[in-house]
Amino acid sequence: MRKSTSDDRPGNSKIEPQPRGARNKGNRPIDQAEAAERFLATPHHQKQHDERLWTLRQRRDDQMWSMPEWEQMRTLASAIKEHTLSHLDTYLEMFETNAKANGVVVHWAKDAAEHNSIVQRVLERRGARTLIKSKSMLTEECGLRADLAKAGVEVIETDLGERIQQLDGEDPSHVVVPAVHKLRTDVAKVFAATIGSDPDNDDPHHLAGAQRDATRPLILNADAGMTGANFLVAETGAVVVCTNEGNADLCANIPDLHIVSVGIEKLIPRSEDLAIFVRMLSRSALGSPITQYTSHFRGPRQGGEMHVVLVDNGRSERLGMEEFWTSLKCIRCGACMNTCPVYRRSGGLSYGATYSGPIGLIIDPTFNARKYSNLPFASTLNGSCTSVCPVKINIHEQIYAWRKVLVRKHETPFVKRAAMKAAGAVLARPAVYRATVERTNEALASLPRFAIYNGLNAWGKNREMPHPPAETFHQWFIKNRGGKR
Amino acid sequence: MSSRDAILASIRSNLPKLDRPLPAVPKFGDDSPANLVEAFGNALTRMGGRLLDPDFTGDAMGPVRALLEHSRLVCSATSEMRGELDLATVVYPRALADVDHALVRASCGVAETGSVLLTDLDLKVNALAYLAQHLIVLLDPADIVVNMHSAYARPEFRERRYAVFHSGPSATADIEGVLILGAQGVRSLSVLLVPRNATENAEAAL
User: Fold this and answer.
1) C-alpha–C-alpha distance, residues A383 and A379, integer Å
2) Where are the domains of chain B?
3) Do B165 and A290 touch (CB under 8 A)?
4) Does the CB of A161 have a partner CB in chain B at under 8 Å?
5) Which of A44, A137, A418, B55 is 20–30 Å from A349 (CA)?
6) Which of B13, B164, B178 is nearest residue A296 as measured by Cβ atoms?
7) pTM
């Protein structure tokens, strides 16, 4: 039998280095298409990414078909979220009262900076220098790690995918599977350089084992632990965290100090509502009936401390946006990302934002309309995101609505604006439209390639233009039906 | 104005002016499986857990004893079997770092997902269920409920400071989707179905 070496594998990094994400140019618009092009130019990465996420989508479908009440559950989930959001002040106060009664210290943070300074203060008061942490998109949103590093606190991510990304100095590319854009060879390279694993061994079991061994002493000796939260239950004051690795439970149950960072939109009223969301979350995300661990923290352990930081950071303002407030229903399952053809082929880092994929397209512009002005155009508007969303957010309609908002605010590039203006003029006049279609078909058939495939025609990138028909439908209709209706 | 009041004020001025009543949540148990024990076992197996075969010689704890035969360090949170490390002496959770096998009795099981519910009362030291290399759970078949809706109606979610569903061992598929058991927590989860009273007289040292 021939010995299998890493050179045999399609994803060998010697052949294909990992494509990096979008270039961050401060406040200037992220060029998602440029980063996507570089991802598409790495076929092994692109193929693994596409297939892995499509597998998750198919497993989600299997779960959906095995549950006759699926659509009823989606309707309930959406209704519970809309009710809670339209009474958010009441439920936040209810949560605060109950959490305090359970011995939890509740903090409120208006924005990312306030969140980070609250966390820093809580750590400082206990003299904590090391913090073990489970995955939280909110802390990514707030840039917590960088701020804590400045304050001399070492943060150790304990989710495998998130740890890979931290050690590689890269943001997570997906809300559920942060390193899904990486091949095993990429991970072997990162681990060899950072935790000293064998650079020639890219067996995922070996890599995961090396990480487990390297992280365990850090977990055992950490001064403090931090988790995010998937849900807050108002009537019981419970913080609910779902993981597959059990790492949130390690972070919360070993050090004496447990800090929870959570967005104010994560609230639900009752324990019985939790059943709906817990049944749908992992089925939508990974196609498993439930995560391996679903943990409910209601108060500190004996002799311990538990803090909850409720973070606004633009959420209360989003609540007032008539077309977009329902994006706050999101439970971060990632189903819309797994099903999106653009996301699967361009990778999460191409969006250059904390939230990528379809849900990112409608959330990111609320943080910075200029920087993320290109993102709502990274969609085919096929509506698949909307149909898989467990809480029934009309994602593709909001993507379209954002395009209108951004064009109105002139946050779109000149070429796109000029093209849209011309299209508007043509589409408003039937005679001009017919003449234009005829001329375009002739032009497509006769123009040299450079005139069709250039920087001004986005539809000519990475694909061939359709073959023009011999005649337009209108010409065919006149000829065959004599113009009679 | 404090941040708390500023946030609440901002929410109030932005609340959607819509009438969205809170719906009643049904229990969805109508087409539940006839045999809850079998459904539980199948679901647990799918999640990567293991249902231990019962012992027919009359020794209720026999299957657990067999698992522990070569264990380096056993720690038990249930009085139904004694371990080598006494949880009453544990001050810091990290003292459990070397535990090979942990043993605990679950509050309940869920047939839909193969989950077992463990609380701070069951575990005594919460970290036990994560620092041990292997976790063994005793579950009374009478404590199995049909689905998550029935599970969330239980009092633990209002009364306990900590309650957790374990559905299989610690797992990850973060590298190219390859499933790995024992990501950060326990490498295996074994469940023995044994009624609460069956072990009363069977307590024995290892």
Assistant:
1) 9
2) 33-196
3) yes
4) yes
5) A418
6) B164
7) 0.90
